[in-house]
Amino acid sequence: MLKRYCLFLLLILFGGLACAAGQNATMLQVSTYGALSQGVYNGDYSYMQLAQQGDFGLGTFNGLGGEMIAVNGYYYHGDVKGDAELVNPAMYAPFADVVHFQPTIHFKIDKSANYEDLQKAMLKYMPNKNIPYAIEVQGTFESTKLRGLKSYKPPYPNFSKVEQEQNEFTLKGTSGIAFGFWFPSYFSGVAPNGFHFHYINEQRKKAGHVLSLQPKQVEVSMEPIRYFDLYLPNTKTFSKADLTPAN
To answer: Over the stretch 78-94, which tens digit does the pLDDT of each residue have?
Structure first.
């Protein structure tokens, strides 16, 4: 187990060096959001592999059981209660978005704002709304409303059922990082429409999927995404899922 974690950290370091050298600015997505919505919660792409593809990102785990957020090359697992720990690299991701984050757009919010105002500000700074963006929001937050997911075993329920059973919790007066992505609507079925964020506090002890944010004093950094790689799982559940878009 110790050797596995050491190799995991070396891969993270290697990925960071490649990013610094400008060798990799491609975003990778594992599976599709449509597949996740249909209950495809078992993937075949390991976190050991994922660590080579990005130092920032978000995702989940086989059978769900929490939320993943990657920050500065460290991958964290926030469980159903929001308690965070480092990801076991032997775990697999049924869905994830990762990138070697190299932001080129920066702005600050120096006063209290609601989640809607924050989103409007981010949209204002996007010069091209026909491409995705990777986004980091770092600073202090008056409130962050998050969710954690239970673990499930096959046969898996659809995600609408999972959302009915999710654990919602609110962190007050924290410092931390919300990281996520914005996708244009034409990605529908492949990626979540609009904004999708996960959050982890400064102590790296609490994490979850963002339901709402109330920033107090934050810096927003964004990277336009022009290269999008999609990995499609080689699993029976993915091959048998009905991914036909609803009319």
So the answer is: 999 999 999 999 999 99
